[in-house]
Design goal:
Layout lengths: L3 E9 L2 E9 L9 E10 L1 H6 L17 E9 L9 E5 L14 E4 L5 E2 L6 H23 L9 E3 L5 H12 L4 E5 L5 H7 L3 E4 L16 E6 L3 H8 L2 E9 L13 H6 L2 E4 L7 H12 L11 E5 L3 H9 L6 E5 L1
Parallel strand pairs: 8-9, 8-11, 9-10, 11-12, 12-13, 14-15
Antiparallel strand pairs: 1-2, 3-4, 3-6, 3-15, 4-5, 5-7
Bound molecules: NADP nicotinamide-adenine-dinucleotide phosphate.
NADP nicotinamide-adenine-dinucleotide phosphate binds next to helix 1, helix 2 and helix 3.
């Protein structure tokens, strides 16, 4: 196999720098599947992987990219054959194991999901980890009894990857979605995705948040965490459910127990990284069918490997919108 392009993050005296380098197959980590990567995507964790204080990657030089979709070039595992289209997200990919920002990747067969019918390789990466996390969050609301008739469902960080896919899925399923955003200029886009209303994120975090506030939300998909999540808990209706997956708004949770013990509010943690394979496949099947966003392609922009570092900086500044699909 010839040398191929990969985006390599490496330490410099000033921090971490990403640049395109030529790699050979023997520089790839061990694994049963050699994959010709067609698309990857950009997630918040990828941006952290290339940030000096991101605490995601421990050893450099490193190829980030927690998502990939492509074609199996060679397989040492009976479950996958040459020419098969697969996707992989999470586990150690792009964290401890070279990820999707290379034209080729070698991965353990245990991490691979056969591309479900109903999604192309590109569409799988429009979803990517962010869309997979949105789907897990929606499923958590449904599993905990949140139904469209129950009233409005709030999505925080609504213009981001997890948020925008969650808005699209929930509105497709008939929920009345309130989208919270820090980008007032994105209001029309969010309404176009299916939100019934859009609120400014500042509205959710008053100077003095109340432990118990007016009961507004039947459910919440939150990828922001921090004070905004703590403040939102007080506005959840009796018996409502909050699915929490992220930390863009902070890692502390300065909340009281009152929403839990007086209103039976459920706070469900969402992890996308180590979801066991049967549930992982089921969630991808849902993304390819019932949950598949109607305007899937409108959620994303396609970028090249060389554009990734600039897109990472936009993301870390909290200014990213929708999903960036990386074409290899
Ligand atoms: N648990 C898991 O397995 C898992 C999986 C995927 C992602 N995540 C986490 O989920 C979060 C979102 O990931 P993503 O890929 O969707 O990132 P993203 O595309 O950058 O979206 C994050 C959104 O959060 C909002 N935001 C940014 N800074 C904020 C701040 N200081 N206060 C409040 N809101 C802020 C912004 O939306 P608005 O401007 O619209 O408010 C932003 O677009 C990240 O923390 C990521 O690590 C976790």
């Amino acid at each position: 196999m010839e040398a191929f392009n990969a985006l390599v993050a490496d330490r410099t005296v000033n921090g971490v720098k990403c640049e395109i380098r030529r790699l050979s197959a023997d520089q790839l980590p061990p694994g049963e599947l050699l994959v010709r990567v067609a698309y990857s995507s950009l997630n918040y964790k990828d941006a952290l992987a290339a940030a000096p204080d991101g605490n995601v990657v421990k050893t450099y030089p490193f190829v980030p990219g927690i998502d990939l979709a492509g074609t199996v070039v060679s397989s040492e595992d009976g479950r996958f054959r040459e020419g098969e289209e697969i996707l992989a997200t999470g586990y150690g990919l792009g964290v401890t194991h070279f990820g999707g920002y290379g034209e080729y990747a070698r991965i353990p067969a245990d991490w691979a999901v056969p591309l479900p019918d109903g999604l192309t390789l590109k569409e799988a990466m429009i979803c990517g980890t962010a869309g997979f996390t949105a789907a897990l969050s929606v499923q958590a609301l449904r599993d905990n009894g949140v139904v469209p008739e129950g009233g409005p469902v709030l999505v925080t960080g609504a213009t981001g990857g997890v948020g925008s896919v969650a808005v699209a899925i929930l509105s497709k399923l008939g929920y009345e979605v309130t989208a919270s955003t820090g980008k007032p200029e994105a209001k029309d886009e969010l309404l176009g995705l299916g939100a019934a209303s859009v609120i400014d994120r500042g509205e959710l975090t008053p100077a003095v948040p109340r432990s118990l506030d007016k009961q507004r939300w039947a459910g919440v998909v939150d990828c922001v965490g921090g004070k905004p999540l703590a403040a939102v808990l007080g506005g959840v209706k009796y018996g409502g459910t909050v699915a929490a997956s992220g930390l863009t708004g902070g890692t502390e949770l300065p909340a009281t127990v009152f929403p839990f013990i007086l209103r039976g509010v459920r706070l469900i943690g969402i992890d996308s990284v180590f979801v066991p394979m049967p549930a992982r496949r089921r969630t991808w099947e849902l993304l390819a069918s019932e949950y598949r966003p109607v305007k899937l392609h409108e959620l994303s922009s396609e970028i090249a490997l060389a554009d990734v570092p600039a897109a990472m900086a936009v993301m870390l500044a909290g200014k990213s919108k929708g999903r960036n699909v990386v074409k290899l």
